[in-house]
Amino acid sequence: MMCNKISVIMGIYNCEDTLSEAIDSILAQTYNNWELIMCDDGSSDRTVEIAKKYVKRYSDKIILLQNQKNMGLNYTLNRCLNEAKGEYIARMDGDDRCMNDRFIVELKVLQEEKDIAIVSSDMEYFDEKGVWGCISHPEYPKEKDFIYGTPFCHAPCMVRKEAFDTVQGYTNKKQLLRVEDYHLWIKMYEAGYRGKNIHKILYQMRDDHHAYRRRKLKYRFNEAYVKAMVVRKFNLPIWNYIYVLRPIIVGMLPAIFYNMMHKKHLAICRR
Fold first, then answer.
1. CB pairs under 8 A, 24+ apart, for 231-239?
2. pLDDT (tens digit, 9 = 90+) per residue, 9-59?
3. Closest residue by Cα to residue 195 from 234, 240, 143
4. Is the dihedral of CA 81, 42, 150, 199 positive or negative?
5. Is the dihedral of CA 161, 165, 140, 100 positive or negative?
6. Which residues, including other chains, have CB under 8 Å from residue 48's CB and lie 6 or more apart?
7. Percent of the chain clearing pLDDT 70 (strictly above)
8. CA 8 to chain CA centroid, nearest Å
9. Torsion over CA of 65, 75, 151 and 153, rounded to 10 degrees?
10. CA distance 142 to 138
């Protein structure tokens, strides 16, 4: 039944301390019909050296591409997509890790639910002290859910390649940096594709408690830009424009209020 090839696309950048753990979590998957396509986005540390060691050891399964300079995640992932030979595309980041049954659980959904093109899962956040939070989204996101933010965790996702081909991959625009996935889902839903979130933790993102506070204001404007697009493209009621300003307003709040609001998004998730 599960003989379809999965292409894992991974943009890597200055992740020498974490890359091995990320790749090892792919090598440990219970489903092994996959290829890993990494693209280095101008790293200045030993990231490429470490990646090349894995390519040498697993030359039949791992490919390494290199950008001449830092180009951003949109461009980098599109380079990976151009090399992908799998029927399904899975994401992975070079500083994260996933559970060893991730691929087989996600693939099962895509094979059993033919109307689903995007599948993701609940996701934990961890740092050097251990797991400190978790995020979960609606099981079957509707167009109206997009106004609250991206309805799928990007890093744990697996998507039918057909959907990527239809929307021509990620859109390479400066206004979409850090929200490239949010925009991608909009394009796919606009093209008629739909998705599902598995309410089980299949992925862990390396992050610290205060990373969200360091998000630059320009990226908050990028999020507002995409939210305005949601209202227009999905013909949502005009009052939804109040959500367009939310990323900018929240970013200007004192830390104590920001922390309180952020904690509300960290749900209790199931393993």
1. 231/147, 233/186, 233/190, 234/143, 234/144, 234/146, 234/189, 234/190, 236/143, 236/144, 236/147
2. 999 999 999 999 999 999 999 999 999 999 999 999 999 999 999 999 999
3. 143
4. positive
5. positive
6. 40, 64, 66
7. 89
8. 12
9. 30
10. 9
Range of the domain at 133: 6-263
Q: What is the pTM of this model?
A: 0.93
How many domains does the chain fold into?
1
Band the pLDDT of 252: cuts 50, 70, 90. Answer: confident
Residues belonging to the chain: 271
| Whole-Å CA distances, 14 to 44, 160, 229 | 6, 29, 32
Alpha-carbon distance of 231 to 118, in angstroms, equals: 21
Within a domain: 269: no
Instruction: Tell me: pLDDT of 260 over 60.
Output: no
How far is Cα 28 from Cα 20, in angstroms, rounded to an integer? 12
- The beta strands (E) that lie in the chain are given as 6-12, 34-40, 62-66, 88-91, 97-98, 118-127, 130-135, 158-160, 195-206
**Residue 160, beta-bridge partner list:** 88
**Is 197 within a domain?**
yes
| Predicted local confidence at residue 217, as pLDDT | 79
Cα 18 from Cα 201, distance rounded (Å): 20
**Range with lowest mean pLDDT among 73-77, 131-135, 267-271:** 267-271
Instruction: Report the CATH number that the domain containing residue 252 is assigned in CATH.
Output: 3.90.550.10
Residue 137 lies inside a defined structural domain of this protein: yes
Q: For residue 154, which amino acid is it?
A: H
Per-residue pLDDT tens over the stretch 86-122: 999 999 999 999 999 999 999 999 999 999 999 999 9
Residue 68 lies in a domain: yes
